[in-house]
Specification:
- The structure is a single chain.
- The chain is α+β, with helices and mostly antiparallel strands.
- It has five helices and three strands, in the order H-E-H-E-E-H-H-H.
- The chain has a three-stranded antiparallel β-sheet with strand order 1-3-2, with helices on both faces.
- A hairpin with a 2-residue loop joins strand 2 and strand 3.
- The termini are far apart.
Length: 120
Amino acid sequence: MKAEIMPVDMKVLMNHIYEYKKGVRNMVLYTFNRRYEEFAIRRLERQGIDYIVQPVGNDRLNLFFGRKECLDAIRMMVNRPLNQLSPEEDFILGAMLGYDICAQCERYCERKCRKCRNVQ
């Protein structure tokens, strides 16, 4: 019997789960091909990890998983595509995901200035 080779997408997922379980992250956003949805959900459920699935388009999904407190905030804030989040919502999401705060500040300022220019 041949061992099935795990696709790179699933190796990345497994690494995210490992980091979450070790406490490196409180929440993860993982974007992947819809064909792996069943595998990903089954894996999270077996490990008792809370999650939210959000369609992205082009047969891709966003999978948020992690601490219940974080996912509760995501449910309230992310009710549309991520590229439609306000600069403030985008900043909060990046901070929750553990992204570099200085880079998030730069991103916030750039998005806020772009939004101001588009209004004028």
